[in-house]
Amino acid sequence: MKRLLREPLLHFLLIGALLFGAYRFLQAGKPDSPSSREIRLTAGEISQLVQLFRVQWRREPTPQELGRLVENKVQAEILYREALAMGLDRDDEMVKRRMAQKMQFLAEDIAAAREPTPAELKSWHEANRAAFAEPARISFRHLYFSPDRRGKRAREDAAAALARLAGQPQDAKIARELADRFMFQEVYRDRAPEFLGREFGPQFAKAVAKLPGGSWQGPVESGFGWHLVFVDTAIPGRLPDFEEIETDVKRGWLAEQKEKAWQKTYQDLRAKYTVLLPAPPK
């Protein structure tokens, strides 16, 4: 008997029983309101269940299938309410993040409910034209001269090859015989400076943008080595007119309105709270 009384499991069970009894006693005087035990499904919710079934199965649900859909929704609502009653939503980071996200979506939806006037969109476009700028585009072929294979002679070999290619078209057969194999492409079509900067390095991108078209030019240095470049076409950057990008402008305006609405909502909510932080460590 003494050994049994010293068992930690027995202590745990006794404490649990006491807590359960205390909880039932405290809740005894608080009967559930009728509405808390009532689950009411609207015609719209039933219609939504049917529509989701149609989308998934491409047919109407049978009465039995519809009954199961309704019962599944009832089950989810019952379990949700019981989980809230037991406090399972407390101290759950996933639940907190989901609820916070829904609050943000709610604030943004309020902003999205209003349609902008044409005057508002045009004014916003004028103030944000740079965001819609179309970058320059360039198409070219290049020949690569590898420092790994040629060492310090890479640039000199590129310059000598350029002399031999004078007046030659970009697809001249002799071109490949003069250069080394490149790990990526030999021909690039309609590429923006940003892409070339990532692929070859910003120094190469700036240099190629300044080359005249229609002939072999170089040598141009990149992060890989040295290149001869034949620019085929170069399209300068431009700022498109409002009429060309009205849909994109509206999308940008709406995104900004959502962000403003969310920031205002959060600041209003934040002002209601006092945040206490621990003292910094000494």
Descriptive report:
- With 282 residues, the chain is α+β, with helices and mostly antiparallel strands.
- It has a 4-stranded antiparallel beta sheet with strand order 2-1-4-3.
- The protein has helices spanning 2-5, 8-28, 43-57, 63-85, 93-112, 118-127, 147-150, 154-164, 173-178, 193-200, 202-209, 246-270, and strands spanning 137-145, 187-191, 216-221, 226-235.
- The chain folds into 4 domains: 1-29; 39-90; 98-132 and 240-266; 135-235, Chitinase A, domain 3 (Roll), CATH 3.10.50.40.
Key terms for this structure?
single chain, 282 residues, alpha+beta, 4 domains, 4-stranded antiparallel sheet, 12 helices, elongated
Sequence-ordered SSE layout with sheet pairings:
Layout: H1 2-5, H2 8-28, H3 43-57, H4 63-85, H5 93-112, H6 118-127, E1 137-145, H7 147-150, H8 154-164, H9 173-178, E2 187-191, H10 193-200, H11 202-209, E3 216-221, E4 226-235, H12 246-270
Antiparallel strand pairs: 1-2, 1-4, 3-4
Helix pairs in contact: 5-12, 6-12, 10-11
Percent of residues in beta strands: 5-15%
| H and E string | HHHHHHEHHHEHHEEH
Backbone shape? elongated
* Total of helices: 12
Q: Please summarize the sheet with the most strands.
A: 4 strands, antiparallel
The side-by-side strand order for the widest beta sheet comes to: 2-1-4-3
The CATH class of the largest domain turns out to be Alpha Beta
Mean pLDDT reading: 86
| CATH T-level topology of the largest domain | Chitinase A, domain 3
Provide the gyration radius in Å.
35 Å
Distance N to C terminus: 52 Å
Helix content: 40-55%
Q: Give the beta-strand count.
A: 4
What class do helices, strands and sheet pairing give? Answer: alpha+beta
